[in-house]
Amino acid sequence: MACILSLILLPARLLLWMPFLVFRLLNIWGSKTSSDPGNPHLRNFHSFRNMHTTKDHVVNRSIDRRRGVVEDLHLAIEIFIEAIFDMLHKTVHCVLSPSSAFRIFRKLFSSASAGVKDVDNDVLNASIPPVTLGDKDPAPTERNPTLHHALNTDARTCKDIITELGYPYEAIHVTTADGYILLLERIPRRDARKAVYLQHGIFDSSVGWVSNGVVGSSAFAAYDQGYDVFLGNLRGLVSRGHVDKNIPSRKYWWFTVNELGTKDVPAMIEKIHEIKTDELKMIQPDEETNDEQPYKLSAIAHSLGGAVMLMYTVTRLIEQKPHRLSRLTLLSPAGFHDETIFILTVAHYFVVPLGPILAFFVPALYIPTRFFRMLFNKLARDFHNYPALGGLIQTVLSYTFGGDSSNWVGVMGLPHYNMDDMPGLSLGVIHHLAQVKWRGKFVMYDYGNASANMKAYGSPVPIDLGEYYSLIDIPIDLIAGRKDKIISAAMVTRHYKLMKDASVNVSYKEFEYGHLDFTKSNQEDILAYVMSRLLLVEPALKHQTSQKKTLKLKKKGQASS
């Protein structure tokens, strides 16, 4: 009977399997043609595959076992067909063999009454403690954990990437003056007298600084050079961290670049100062306390993060407050946007007059629900699994962003775009950047009327930060990309010229890369240059109380003689 049913249903089964057979044949043909170097049909995609190899995203490739949407559909239909035939087979078997069916039911009920031992979920999802580095063995030990997540998506955090590569990790929660709760992450070297703070840009998070693995990531490179590494996360996550747990979405998302530079960064850097000062005092209790900070803090920032760090530095100097920094390295920093791609130029004409009104209806740009974030995560996986599809998306996005050669497909596959959380972009930030482009100056946010500006700045017009570059008292390194169409090299040069005219100690360097290649691609020349600038900062000297007393005694002896 089972054989007869199989023969009857064979045409239907063949009909259902036909699309997948054709799909597999096309894949086999595609793989053969792609292996032929003389094939003209796929010549356009060779540059994409050569430019962005598996080396660019070593973390994603080495442990990533996710499935995309196409693979999920394929697998689901296969399981469905197999389940139907298996059910029919077992039904016919039970009808034709009552004795065996009775034995199956008796065994089923006896096992149910005896109880079945459950699998311990805590063992499967056990957290891995971070590695602690000692003086005798400073080399980190690589861990290879199995990451479990529902629906086969990648939800790794910065902590997961750092700890699975064998580095130590620490999470620090920082509350800003206006109640936002930020996550300051750390790869700690508690006894180090040199620290570095890394600040991300738009639609990014701390994951961007560790996404290239041990060899190509700025965070790991700085740690291996002996730095205490701090990774800042600005406000603007879908999870909406705030002291008010019931804060409305519109209220949470209404902020500008002002709040990032005058609220978020000061809160995180002051927390770094508090932590480092306390730790160094505990490690070296006999050190004489004075007003000098016992460590040197450098900062590396990308894109909007560069503008935020410049705003932080200048405003602290205007207010005559310590900024704690010894050097700034800015990768394609925002701040001037006279030359932008066509789509952004058109958008800013609508955003400048209508920004506050649009913010009432659309407070921020992000993927709103867990389902659509999961779908985006899986589609990004399909772009990696199917090179033809990935090459098409890469080409479309490259043309959309003015020909920028960044690895857009690789960026979409990063784990900080997952179903649980993702960085969003406030419409207030968009409105502020549109004002910057409209005015042609690096200005703080214009609140729209003289009284509001007077309350915020003590002036009827917003502060032009470029006019205060003469206050900058630390070295600045500006790095631009010749293929960067988001923030062109000409716009970075404007920062450089203003700083040079203001007698700031500034350097300028260009590379043949796109906007995202500074952080998301494993570019050894950029990383080597950034580390070389970072190493120009000498660590803070140790001043011991006993040494001071000895010098004082010598001086007294000389004076009496």
TrEMBL record:
<keyword id="KW-1133">Transmembrane helix</keyword>
<keyword id="KW-0472">Membrane</keyword>
<keyword id="KW-0812">Transmembrane</keyword>
<feature type="transmembrane region" description="Helical">
    <location>
        <begin position="357"/>
        <end position="376"/>
    </location>
</feature>
<feature type="domain" description="Partial AB-hydrolase lipase">
    <location>
        <begin position="159"/>
        <end position="213"/>
    </location>
</feature>
<dbReference type="InterPro" id="IPR006693">
    <property type="entry name" value="AB_hydrolase_lipase"/>
</dbReference>
<dbReference type="Pfam" id="PF04083">
    <property type="entry name" value="Abhydro_lipase"/>
</dbReference>
<dbReference type="GO" id="GO:0006629">
    <property type="term" value="P:lipid metabolic process"/>
</dbReference>
<protein>
    <recommendedName>
        <fullName>Partial AB-hydrolase lipase domain-containing protein</fullName>
    </recommendedName>
</protein>
<dbReference type="InterPro" id="IPR029058">
    <property type="entry name" value="AB_hydrolase_fold"/>
</dbReference>
